[in-house]
Design goal:
313 residues; Immunoglobulin-like; Protein Transport Mog1p, Chain A; 3 domains; five-stranded antiparallel sheet; four-stranded antiparallel sheet; 18% helix; 44% strand
Amino acid sequence: MKKFILGLVCGLLLASASVAFAGESIKAVLFPAAIEVNGALAAAANGGTKILNVDGSTYVPLRFIGEELGAVVGYDAELKTVFVRYGELHLTDPDYAGISAGNLVLTKAGSDTLVTGQLQMAGVGNTANSVTATLSFYDDRNSCIGKAVISGKGFGVEAQSFSATGKGDLRGYASAILHVDAVNGKAVPHPVPAVYKDAKYGFTLQLPEYWSGKYKVESAISEDSGIENIFFTTRGGGIVFSVAVWPLEEWESQGDIVRENVRAWEVGRKGDNVFAVMMPGDMQYDPGNAEEAAEYLKLASYVDLIRTTFTFK
């Protein structure tokens, strides 16, 4: 139903835009009307939201309807595009369980970028909480292209909207990382990570404190492709991620296909090699073993953060 209503409203908006572009005039009449969403009266509709009647059809603002349905709506004047985002909030900080963000909409704001989205906190009941967090944006080569700081006081178990500003144009980002800085005025500690150094290829990764004593490193070279995988596994042998060393020509021809099938990120290039962090395409733990599953999933929750630390010595 949500998807249908948003589609309908977008259709109405685009239809009206096409009429305007065609140079035709329309006659619209403002009229009073209440709006009820899932049995609840939308009070904001009585306080300034304009409802139009155009040739017998009712038009309401897309932003108003989107936000009432739990979506984030934004308009980029430069791109002449309306963006609607709704769904699971998938960005988390593994060092602070319970806070998630997502449904990001990035639009141009002068020379900078306006970042709007939603954030929620689990397990806090009806209390409102202040949160300061940083969103870091990365391109498809794993380089940080900018950051935006979220700061607000009304966050709780329901997803709440936020707005933040990032310097420069961040709209072409490939991925984003959430870092929770403080909750209710108290700084969130982030332990100093350990540095993993690869002697053969000369790269380093920062592994979080939680990983200490819980992983092994193994490597194998494919006889067919010549690709070497440096596997970071659990103590039981389940692959959490690997750093795959691809011949440049192979990656250029197959990289896009690989990324369509598994989670993979190019993280660096050196000589004729491309380095990619890759997640396994199948389950690497016993779902019937609750302790093993919990440890594996916790280790895996850090991979997004780990891959952004890849660098050459």
